[in-house]
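User: Okay, second chain of the day. Same drill as before: sequence in, structure tokens out.
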Amino acid sequence: MVSFLNDLPDSPQFDADELDGTLSALAKHLQRLGAQFLPQGDASAGGAWLQRHIAAPASTLPSASEAASSAEAANTPSSSALAEAPKAVPVVPASTQPPAVSVESPQSPYPVSLPLADRQQQLQTLAAQVAGCTACAELACSRKQTVFGEGNPQARVCFFGEAPGAEEDRQGRPFVGPAGQLLTKMIEACTLRREDVYILNTLKCRPPENRNPLPHELDHCRGFFEAQFDLVQPEYIVCLGLFATQSLLRSKLSIGRLRGRFHAYRNSKVLVTYHPSYLLRTASAKKLAWTDLQLLMADMGVRR
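Assistant: Same drill. Structure tokens below.
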């Protein structure tokens, strides 16, 4: 690990993309050494840490014994901390709040695979929880119905979009408007059918006037769409547009910076491309989206 850090540049300024790659490589190195829980962060925070510590003389860094002592002290609550522990608060009924967000990192393995009948039953139970959710008061008041998701519960590929539109809100199904018709053509271009794949969105309710999802709305729905992925366990996830991409990968990079290669979410390969609604407005981007789909098919071993 020390030799790995010594390979970093001496300059105190770091390129964000280069740093992302360096930190990702370091995380994989730690996992090979047996580390199971790794912190989440971003390039700017990592750069600030590196500027403070990596360039520091070795004599200023704590020894292994000092680090272990500090870790043990940090994990041992003091008597004053125990005395100031907050009192228990009432629990909100499960039907009015989304499931708890998984503490696993996006690269952690999926839970144990379930038989088809169990997957279907648990997806139905989760859909009922979504239908009763009122965590986002504005969305709960303005929606006609929730839009959970649909498709093959054992799908090899999931298509992951942003939020329902007017037609989706009316029918209670994802991607059934004009953008959905284009998505169907994109799926068929990959030699697949809609019933072969699984389709879902980040938000389960239509935002008023089709506005962009708000951060707290994405947070409230995160437990739902992560649970869907846990149940379906797709081999591939195709993120359609910026909000699906940034929500799943927990990244602030643009579509242009993230497309053209595979990313990881647990055991799934994640491909980033443009949202069908954007392709309807920007015809020139269709060639780029087709290039992304060709990358998907090549990795899947699909021949046209």
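Confidence is low (pLDDT under 50) at residues 1-14, 52-96.

User: Thanks, on to the next one.
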